[in-house]
Every structure is written in C-alpha cells, then in structure tokens.
Specification:
Layout lengths: L1 H16 L10 E8 L5 H8 L2 E5 L6 E7 H21 L7 E6 L7 E2 L21 H14 L25 H4 L9 E6 L19 E2 L16 H10 L15 E6 L7 H7 L9 E4 L1 E2 L12 H13 L7 E5 L21 E7 L17 E4 L7 E4 L6 E5 L2 H18 L5 H10 L1 E2 L9 E2 L5 E2 L7 E2 L1 H10 L6 E5 L3 E6 L6 E8 L1 H6 L2 E15 L5 E6 L5 E5 L11 E8 L9 E9 L7 E14 L100 H35 L7 E3 L34 H4 L38
Parallel strand pairs: 6-8, 6-9, 7-8, 9-11, 11-12, 12-13, 22-29
Antiparallel strand pairs: 1-3, 1-4, 2-3, 5-10, 14-15, 16-19, 17-18, 20-28, 21-28, 22-27, 23-26, 23-28, 24-25, 24-27
The structure holds 2-acetamido-2-deoxy-beta-D-glucopyranose (NAG) (3 copies).
Protein name: P/Homo B domain-containing protein
GO biological process, one term: peptide pheromone maturation
Main location: membrane
Length: 830
C-alpha cells in the first residue's frame, strides 16, 4: 500500500517531466493494465515477469508493462491465466489485475480533409451572386463596433454571410453582448498548432499543449503538410487583430496536441485525449479512421476508457467536451456509425452543410450525428488562419472544418457558463439546432419536440440560440443507463428488402430500477455473421415508432466479417421514455451468394437519472463485457420475440454472472450496484450475484442462485415458473394483437420476419418455433432516398482516399491511394 502510493507519486513526478512515451514496438511487447488501487505495480511486474514502464496518462491505476518480444507471449499467457482464475474465483484470486490489453501501434488516423469534389453534373452554376448591400452595411457596422480590423474578416462568410443571408453561424449578436469566449480553453488534437502565428499566439495556451509525435511541450507543425490543426485552431480562437480573420471565440484560449503526424500508440492517444483535462475544456477532433466506405474501426478499450475518464473526471467532474468531425466518406457510401469515435455517446458529432445550406457530397450521414454546420462545398470553403506568421487560408473544408466551428460555439457557452456539463452541452446543441432543407433528408419528429434527419442531425447549429439557451440552462441530473440482457437470435438473414426482426420489451419497472428517467443516447451492441459486411444494414424502431438507421449498406465494404461486438449509436430517441418494445431489423438487401446470420444483440439505454442521490458513475468499458464465452447457451431468453407481453424477463440473470471485474451492470442490476464507482469497480466482484457460493445452489449449477438461500430460490423459481405460464398465455394473446397492430401500422412499410415467442426459459436455444409473419405495406422507407451516391456522383468519388495509410482490409477494391494534398487542394475557393 505504502509502496504503491510511493510509486504513484514517483511516477506522477516522472510523468510530468516526460509525458510522451518512448516505446519500441519492434523489440518489445507492451501491455496496459488496470490494477486494484491497493496493489503495488512493482509486485505485479514481478508476478507476470514484465517490466513496469509507468502510469498511463491520467487514467487512475492504469500502468504500462513491457517485455522483450521473445518473452511477450509468456507475459500474455500469465495475464490470460490470471484472468481465467479470477473469473472463476472472483477477486479473491489476489492478482490485483482488473483488466489488461496488449498494446498496438495504430495505423495513422486520417484528417478529415474532403476528397476532391465529384465532377459537377447538370447545368453550370450561374454567376456568383452579389452581396446584399444592406447586409454589407450591417457587417461594416458590426466590425466597427467590435473593432474588428482583421483583413479577411469580411470574407469569413460562416460568421456573417452577406450573400446567402442567414447561412452563417449567427454569432455576431453574441459578440455584441460581450460574449467572446473569454475564459474558455479549447484544445485542438491534430497535426500541430502554429503557436507563433500572429493570428494565434496571443490566444495560445501553452500549458494545455503537447506534442506526442515528436515528444515535447510545443505542438509545432513540422511536416510540410502539418497545417490542418492550425487551420482548425484559427476557426476556434483566431485573435481579433490585424492578422487574417477571427475565431468563433476570439477571446478564448486554444491549445494544440499533436498526434496525427506519425503512428501513435494507444497509450499515447489515451494520454492525449486527457491531456491537461482540468484546464482544456473542449477537445476538437477533426480526424478518425479512414472514410473509405469499408473501414469499421473503433478506438481500443484503453482509449475508450480515457474518454470515459475525460467525461467523468475532466473539468473537475463536469466532463471534457469531445467534438468530432462526422467524416467525409459519404460519396464512398460511408456512414459515421462505422466509426467508433463519431458514434461514441461522449462525442458531439458534427457534419457539414455548404454556404448555400446544402448537404455537401462528402458529409456522412448517421443516427449518431448530433448537428451540422457550415463548411466547404458549393461555391466556397472556410476562410481561416494558416501555418506561418501571417498567412491565411481560403480553402479549409470537409467535416474537419465543421467540427471546430461547433467547438468554438461551445467555447462561447463555456466562457459564459463554465458550470455546464458535457451532457448539458449536448442538450444545448440540440436546442440550438435549426432544421435545414426540410424537403430533403427524411426528417422525423422526435419525442423531445425537435426534428431529426440522418443527413443533418438535429439541424444546423445557431450560436445566438445556443448562447441564449445556455444563459438559463439548468444542468441535467447525472447519467443513468439500462442494459438489456444479451438477446440471442441465431437465425439466417433473408435476402432482399425483407429483414429479420428481433424485439425486446422494456418495462417501466426495469427503467425505474435502473434509475433512468428519460433517454438521451441509445446504443445497440450486436453480432452478425456475414460473408460480405457491406451488404448488411440495420434499423431500430423505438416504442414511439421513431426509426434509427443504425447502419446502411456500403458498396465498398467487402470484408468477410459481419459485425463483431460492434456498438451502434443513435441520438434519434432523445427525450423518449424508453419503455415499450424496441425492435432491431437486420437486412441483407443484396440478392447474391453472400449470406449471413443474426447472432445476438443487446440494447443499452442512456439518459438522465431519476434520483441523483442514488446514481453512480458508469464503470470503465471492459472489452470482456462483450466476451460471449459466458453468454452463449445461457441467453435463450423469452425476450427475442415480438408480442411478448411485458414480463420481468430481465430479472432473470441468464448470463454474465461470471463476469470479470468492471462488468457493465448485469440485467439484474442494470444500473450498477449503488455505491459502485469507477474507482472502486472491483466491488462488482463481491456483489452477491457474482460471488454466489456453489454449495448454496438449489438447482443444477447452470441456474443462477442469486446468492440467496435455498428457500428464497424456491420462491424465485416458483415465481418464475408462474410468470412463464402466465406469459405463454398472455404472449399468445399479445402476439395476435400485435399482428393486427403491425398490419395496421402505416409506418410498417416493408416485409420482415418476426421471430416467434420462444417460451423456453431454461437455456435451451435454437429450434425456435420459427413461425414467420410476413408483411408488406407501403413503400420502402429509405432515409437516403434521392441521395443515392450512384445517382448523384460519378464513380470517381469512390476512388479517392485521404491521408490514410493502406490497411489490411483493402482488397481488390483498392484503386489508387490518392494522397490528398492540403495546399490549395480541393478546388474550392473563388
Ligand atoms: C440570430 O441572432 C439574432 C440576434 O443577433 C436573433 O435575433 C435571431 O433570432 C437569430 N436567428 C435565429 C434563426 O435564431
Ligand atoms: C477576461 O476575463 C478576465 C477576468 O474575468 C478579465 O480580467 C479580462 O480583462 C477579460 N478579457 C477580455 C478580453 O475581456
Ligand atoms: C460465422 O461464420 C463463420 C464462417 O463464415 C463460421 O465458421 C461460424 O461458425 C459462424 N458463427 C456463427 C455463430 O454462426
């Protein structure tokens, strides 16, 4: 104990002097471990035969251990054995290792510079429209009043558009109230930040800056194309002076964290996104896995943990605000739900519209996209600062340029209301969004009184509205969550427009038990087997009949992989109660020899809690949560059925009883044991369900004992038996009712297969009674109708990739890995 405290102290001293890690992945293997706080990392090093390198970023009790390559597999085996033993015996196994992950170097993350525009089709655009004289005069007035003399200020149409009136961020009215970002600090995680640029240096925040690529305190751009981060920083906080233009929060501070110029380890990336997280309030991230329409990639568990750490402990517990660019792969058929950063519930995901208010060819749709804002496309791009003492850039674009404008807007809000939490700011973004192009984008009326489109999110952000709302916004209560059990489907997916539907009923009781009052994000983790991933698509219907297109088919994605424990996210259901039937429909629209099977899924509801006093922080994500070793076979629930009456199925903990530590809440305690916090997550192991002694079991061991006496077990199983009997009867009734309802439901617009009620509750799976109910009605619902890439763009679009390095998934589809140049590149600009 003393030793560990001492070691931690020593390391934090060491860490502050040499933050970025020097690792040699050619000669060594590296392991990230999460240790019990009471365990000495040195003792652990000894027990697994590895060298202790040091702590990982700001993650409490996380350390890196190393071993020479030739001994790496021995260490891995030791860790594996400890985990196995631990699972069997719970925390008493004594190793003190709560979690581990072998570390890898990631392929370089791609900047979200747009690919060159698809060749214009149709008639050439008319001559450039002229500025509106009254608007020009108004802008002159504003510049005079605010003493803005920056030479390109009047070209910064995203701030004040004198040609397409109203197509801007509507921020000048905010500035005129004296709200200019003073007090805010935004960090641009990118390829560097030119802190010597005249347009940035007065707002540069050195203490929040770091270079992880060439370790050192200054994130100075070094490579010839390290310009992206500086341009993004200019959009956020370019100084009001005589250089170039101004940022959205021109009296705010901006820091730079450089990670995109070389490959980076998970460890460094995890440290980077928590760097200076008590000072840096917002992290603006205009990058991600390649947007080529075939990559499906998420941050490693370690990085996900750093994000959770950021929202839970950054800014003194109010939470780091992560803003991610949605991605530029729309022309290649990509969708931001295939990117584990943009589909994180912790991210404000931002897509683009152009200065005419249209959807640009590159901006990716998805159900996780929160808002859009202005960027390149149509006749112009974003005008901002560039690398160099007094250099400007007129061609900044892509969703890369959209994200920072929202980050800058959030900075204005935090300058005024530093007490707002990361979730408050998501609410405010939704509140301040204005739907655009109601004629296109398949808008749905959402339960929170807004409109949502997969193409435009909740609409375009309006800075004035956001600030007005922020002035009086009452912080929402802490976050609660409900996780359904794993729902086994195990059925082949029919091809064509039909789909395979699986439903789960959430009762009010489950939500109350989970302390969950109303929804914000919804995530679905699923396993689908398929020989061609791109053929698949998934939609989800909520109890209120709202539809999330969780995934869309992708013509470029030929991976023989399906979805493996992939989590999709939706913000469509914000404001719904969550109670009722949730249906997930997996489709395989391509009629070909490529086939698949829907294996299982799990519904996760996130939102505001009922009782603040009872609410705990969510445990760290744990990759072993998704480990199906413990679920298959025991998952045969009655829940995969349309028409099951609301029963207390999830009260039967059919699975995950023998979960490793940090388990997400099991169905029996969907909201985690009160008192269980992320830092004392090991308590999960000693919870009654996890540590029930075998000798107490009334029934054969595959029946859970709930850790209670035989008498209580008799009572429980007796009750369960009664419920089952009751359900069979009621189920039959509801099934008939439901069939009627579905027939009458106008939203039910195509045929799908409905899994019949599986009455067996005892763990037998497979031969479901398999009655099929096929329906046909109305026309096919398609959120992207009229936006088909094939229709709108020539096939050239799909050949362009960005700055990504080729990855192993690229097969025959690869044509040329066009490296996008960022100098004057995109053919934008006048
Ligand atoms: C834009 O800001 C002005 C105040 O400067 C406000 O009156 C107007 O309503 C805002 N526009 C929208 C669409 O909210
Ligand atoms: C920002 O706020 C600080 C303290 O509240 C104040 O001293 C400073 O003058 C302000 N700066 C600007 C540019 O308004
Ligand atoms: C998934 O597909 C692979 C081959 O494509 C097969 O080996 C495996 O058994 C399948 N898994 C399930 C659960 O169907």
């Amino acid at each position: 104990m003393l030793l560990s405290t001492w070691a931690t102290l020593l390391f934090s001293v060491a860490a502050s002097s040499a933050i970025a890690t020097r690792r040699n992945f050619e000669s060594h293997d590296y392991f990230a471990l999460h240790l019990d706080a009471l365990v000495s990392p040195h003792a652990v090093a000894q027990s697994i035969g590895a060298h202790l390198e040091g702590p990982i970023g700001q993650l409490p009790d996380h350390y890196t251990f190393s071993a020479p390559k030739e001994r790496g597999s021995a260490v891995e085996n030791a860790l594996y054995e400890l985990r196995k033993r631990r699972r069997k015996r719970g925390i008493q196994s004594g190793s003190g290792i709560l979690w581990y992950e072998k570390q890898r170097l990631r392929p370089r993350l791609a900047k979200r510079i747009p690919p060159p525009p698809a060749p214009r089709q149709g008639p050439p655009p008319p001559g450039r429209p002229q500025p509106d004289p009254i608007a020009v005069e108004a802008l002159d007035d504003i510049a005079r009043t605010l003493e803005i003399q920056d030479p390109i200020f009047k070209d910064q149409w995203h701030i004040f558009n004198t040609i397409q009136l109203g197509h801007d961020l509507n921020v000048t009215g905010v500035w005129l109230q004296g709200i200019t970002g003073n007090g805010s600090i935004t960090s641009v995680i990118d390829d560097g930040l030119d802190m010597y640029s005249h347009d940035l240096k007065d707002n540069y925040f050195a203490a929040g800056s770091y270079d992880y690529n060439d370790p050192g305190p200054e994130p100075r751009p070094r490579l010839f194309d390290d310009k992206h981060g500086t341009r993004c920083a200019g959009e956020i906080a370019a100084v009001r002076n005589n250089a170039c233009g101004v940022g959205m929060a021109y009296d705010g501070k901006v820091s730079g964290i450089r990670i995109l110029s070389k490959v980076i380890s998970d460890e460094d990336e995890a440290a980077a996104i928590n760097y200076g997280y008590q000072d840096n309030q917002i992290y603006s991230c205009s990058w991600g896995p390649p947007d080529d329409g075939r990559t499906m990639d998420a941050p490693s568990t370690l990085i996900q943990r750093a994000m959770v750490n950021g929202v839970q402990h950054g800014r003194g517990g109010l939470g780091s605000v992560f803003v991610f660019a949605a991605g530029n792969g729309a022309a290649a058929g990509d969708n931001c739900n295939f990117d584990g950063y943009t589909n994180s519930i912790y991210s404000i995901t931002v897509g683009a519209i152009d200065r005419e208010g249209n959807h640009p060819y590159y901006s990716e749709p998805c159900s996780a996209q929160l808002v859009v804002t202005y960027s390149s496309g149509g006749s112009d791009a974003i005008h901002t600062t560039d690398v160099g003492t007094n250099k400007c850039y007129i061609g900044h674009g892509g969703t890369s340029a959209a994200g920072p404008l929202v980050a800058g807007t959030v900075a204005l809000a935090l300058g005024l209301r530093p007490d707002l939490s990361w979730r408050d700011l998501q609410y405010l973004c939704i509140d301040a969004a204005i739907p655009v192009h109601l004629d296109d984008g398949d808008w749905q009326d959402t339960k929170n009184g807004k409109k949502f489109s997969h193409v435009y999110g909740y609409g375009k952000i309006d800075a004035w509205r956001l600030i007005e709302a922020a002035k009086t916004f009452e912080s929402v209560k802490p976050q609660a969550w409900y996780n359904s059990p794993w729902l086994s489907v195990q059925r082949d997916i029919p091809q064509g427009d039909r789909g395979l539907a699986s439903s789960f009923d959430v009762t009010q009781e489950m939500l109350t038990k989970a302390n969950l009052e109303r929804l914000e994000h919804v995530t679905v983790t699923m396993n689908v087997n398929h020989t061609r991933r791109g053929d698949l698509s998934v939609e989800m219907r909520s109890p209120h009949g709202l539809i999330s297109h969780l995934s869309t088919s992708r013509r470029n994605d030929a991976a023989q992989a399906g979805y493996v424990d992939w989590t999709f996210m939706s913000v469509v259901h914000w404001g719904e109660s969550g109670a009722g039937t949730w249906t997930v429909i997996v489709k395989d629209t391509e009629l070909n020899e490529e086939k698949g099977r829907f294996i299982d899924w799990r519904l996760n509801l996130w939102g505001e809690c009922i009782d603040e006093a009872k609410q705990t922080l969510h445990p760290y994500p744990d990759e072993h949560d998704d480990d199906h070793e413990t679920t298959t076979g025991s998952v045969a629930t009655t829940s995969v059925a349309v028409g099951t009456p609301p029963t207390d199925v999830p009260a039967i903990p059919t699975d995950h009883i023998d979960r490793p530590v940090n388990a997400k809440p099991t169905p029996s305690s969907s909201n985690g044991t009160p008192g269980l916090s992320s830092t004392s997550a090991s308590a999960a192991d000693s919870s009654p369900t996890a540590s029930s002694a075998p000798s107490d079991s009334l029934l054969p061991s595959f029946f859970p004992t709930f850790g209670v006496s035989k008498r209580t077990q008799i009572w429980i199983y007796g009750a369960v038996a009664l419920i089952i009997l009751f359900c069979i009867g009621l189920g039959a009734y509801f099934f008939i009712q439901r069939r009627k309802r579905i027939r009458n439901n106008p939203r039910d617009d195509y045929e799908f297969e409905i899994l019949d009620t599986q009455e067996d509750n005892g763990g037998v799976d497979g031969h479901a009674s398999g009655k099929k109910a096929k329906r046909r009605a109305g026309e096919l619902y398609d959120a992207f109708a009229g936006e088909s890439d094939d229709e709108l763009f020539s096939s050239d679009g799909e050949e362009e990739t960005y700055r990504d390095i080729p990855d192993s998934e690229r097969g025959r589809g690869e044509k040329r890995a066009g490296r996008m140049e960022s100098s004057g590149d995109t053919g934008h600009g006048p």
